[in-house]
Amino acid sequence: MSNSEIIMELGRRFKEYRLSYQLTQKEVAEKAGISLITVRQFENGKAYNITMGNFLALLRVLDCLEQVNGLLPEIPMSSYVMEQIIKKKPKRVRHAK
Fold this sequence. Notes:
56% of the residues lie in helices and 0% in strands. By secondary structure, the chain is an all-alpha fold.
């Protein structure tokens, strides 16, 4: 998918969420702090250059901001790094008598 196709799909999905939350475009725009025109263009697939800030503000209105973490998850540690950590882990603890 091209960038514009992805944005169009996200706009379509956003509209479905907005409607399920029973919010008007105007209410969403006010809560997100963005213009009504931006919301309309995004939902209609015409906002090909929506800013990340505006997109996150829209997600925040619908309580979907937590799901952004899944887009770019933390990189798991490599087996080499894990092995180095295990090697440095103490095998036992001694206290002075």
